[in-house]
Give the backbone structure.
Amino acid sequence: MRKILLVFGLILINWSALAQEDVYKGNYELAARFSPEKLKKMIFSTSVDPHWMKKSDRFWYEYETSDGKNWYLVDPVRRTKTPLFDKDKLAAEITKASKILLTDSTSSSMS
């Protein structure tokens, strides 16, 4: 009986040893591609911080992508999301205003 139990025990031990998974080397090159420093260059905004407008159900938020920052106005009641402003139009207006300021300041300094 002892011999049968001993043989059975050895078979179980060998069988469990064969069932172990293979050990693989770590892929450090792949892991390095997803380091926190490199992820910061790929992932910008991951959450929304709503700024609620006074006496309104609407809010605006900022969202950053690889193309730059975007601002959106959200109306949950109407289920709409629109850009808060037109970035190109705003840039043109700022450029126009700064040129006026530059020409005014250079003409007054020459007098």
Q: What stands out?
A: The radius of gyration is 33 Å. The chain is about 50% helix and 20% strand.
